[in-house]
Amino acid sequence: MALDRATLTNVSKPAQPSVPVMFNPKELVITRNMLYPEISVPGLDMPLQQFVRGESRTLTAELFLDRSNTGDSLADDLGKLRQFVEIDSDLHAPPVCLFAWGDTSFTGVMAEFSEKFHMFDESGKVLRARVTVKLKSYEAATQQFKRLNKQSPDRTKARTARAGDRLDLIAFSEYGDPALWPVLADANGLERPRLLQPGTLIRVPPL
Fold first, then answer.
1. 177: Cβ–Cβ under 8 A, 6 or more apart, which residues?
2. Among 40, 46, 109, 143, which is most buried by a count of CB atoms within 10 Å?
3. b vs e for 73-87, b when ≥16 Cβ sit within 10 Å of the residue's Cβ?
4. What is the 8-class DSSP label of residue 42?
5. How far apart are CA 129 and CA 118, in angstroms?
6. Cα distance between residue 161 and residue 198, in whole Å
7. Cα–chain-centroid distance for residue 127?
8. How large a percentage of the chain has pLDDT more than 90?
9. What is the pLDDT of residues 59-110, one digit of tens each?
């Protein structure tokens, strides 16, 4: 049987209490896309697919709020949920939140927030509502950098420059250190290393 409670927690300010909500889905879908732009090369039957980066995972959930049994307004409950899409004065951005339900734990920022009211009392107080949220996964840059493989390649390889590429960025991606861009400049005979034409083949030698 599915659990009937989920919580949203303000990760940016963990001292604040978690917000409980009713949640009993038939299914829960978490998606993740990878970015592979196409690079056209004259003479080939199809464009090359070059991996650029992973994109944020997304979680979409419909949360249920109901106080029809007590007749109390949902104003406070909705206010607690709205904090995740309001700019925090200390952070200058909405807070990072943690969605937890059963075995599912998802840390992200609220990308979409939609409220739908279903029941009111005679004075107009909201007694029942559904809130649909879409979270985009979030991880601090320091944590992402820790996972990077900073070992240099053990043999020369090549990659195709794309729009916006610079040798220092490629050096960081391949060697883990942007200061090693002169290695790439020397290997490729580049006099102006910051101006890379998209489609240029860049040799990446081992260190």
1. 150, 171
2. 109
3. bbeebeebbebbeee
4. T
5. 5
6. 5
7. 33
8. 23
9. 998 898 988 888 888 999 899 999 999 998 888 889 999 999 888 899 999 9
- DSSP string for residues in 46-65: S-EE---EE---EEEEEEEE
What mean pLDDT is predicted for residues 188-201?
81
C-alpha to C-alpha distance for 136 and 143, rounded to whole angstroms: 17
Beta carbons within 10 angstroms of residue 104's beta carbon: 14
The phi, psi pair for 104, rounded to 5°, reads -90, 125
Nearest alpha-carbon partner for 18 in 81, 61, 65 = 81
Phi, psi of 186 (to 5 degrees): -65, -40
Question: Following DSSP, what letter does each residue of 101-161 receive, concatenated?
Answer: ETTEEEEEEEEEEEEEEEEE-TT--EEEEEEEEEEEE---HHHHHHHS--PPPSS-EEEE-
Token reading at 142: 């320091």
Cα–Cα separations (whole angstroms), residue 75 to 6, 15, 70, 81, 205: 19, 22, 14, 10, 61
DSSP 176: S
Q: Encoding tokens for residue 10?
A: 């303000």
